[in-house]
Each structure stands twice: as structure tokens, then as C-alpha cells.
């Protein structure tokens, strides 16, 4: 299932890696594509949206509903 998150606070490649790592810890099978200029994180995952959003938020990034 494809899900798109609006994530603010990503300013560099390190931020992208941190968000990607958090998602992959929640779902090792997920695929992640990030466009930080648009604040978009596209995730292909079977995990619930809330679980993925919580993983991103735990890294310190704001996730819009």
C-alpha cells in the first residue's frame, strides 16, 4: 500500500537518512522515496499509517495528518 506523508524539518541528506532508517525499522520491507524540497515522504508498506507516522515523529520530525 502506498502512503504519502508531509514531513517538515528535513533540511539535508542526513535528515532523509534518519527518516528512511526510522521507517525501515518499523517495516524492513518498506520502500521509501523522499523529496525534502516538497516535504514529501512516499512509502510503500503494509504497516498501518499510524505506526509509520509515529516512527518518523520519534526521529524528531513533524508529520502532518
Helix content: 25-40%
The total count of helices amounts to: 2
Specify the CATH class: Alpha Beta
What low-confidence regions span 5 or more consecutive residues with pLDDT below 50?
none
Count of domains:
1
Strand order of the largest sheet: 2-3-1-4
Largest sheet: 4 strands, antiparallel
What's the count of strands? Answer: 4
Query: What CATH architecture would you give?
Result: 2-Layer Sandwich
User: What spatial form do the alpha-carbon principal axes imply?
Assistant: globular
Rg, nearest Å? 10 Å
Beta-strand proportion: 25-35%
| CATH topology annotation | Alpha-Beta Plaits
Report the average pLDDT across residues.
96
Question: What class, by secondary structure content?
Answer: alpha+beta
Helix-strand sequence:
EHEEHE
Ends distance: 17 Å
What does this structure look like?
It is a single chain. With 65 residues, this protein is an alpha+beta fold. The protein has one domain: Alpha-Beta Plaits (2-Layer Sandwich). It contains two helices and four strands. It has a four-stranded antiparallel β-sheet with strand order 2-3-1-4, covered by helices on one side. A hairpin with a 4-residue loop joins strand 2 and strand 3 (40-44). It is globular. The two termini are 17 Å apart. The model has no long low-confidence stretch (mean pLDDT 96).
Amino acid at each position: 500500500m502506498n502512503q504519502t506523508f508531509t514531513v517538515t524539518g528535513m533540511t539535508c541528506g542526513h535528515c532523509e537518512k534518519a527518516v528512511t532508517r526510522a521507517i525501515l525499522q518499523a517495516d524492513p520491507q518498506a520502500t521509501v522515496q523522499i523529496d525534502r524540497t516538497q516535504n514529501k515522504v512516499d512509502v510503500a508498506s503494509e504497516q498501518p499509517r499510524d505506526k509509520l507516522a509515529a516512527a518518523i515523529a520519534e526521529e524528531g520530525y513533524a508529520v502532518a495528518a
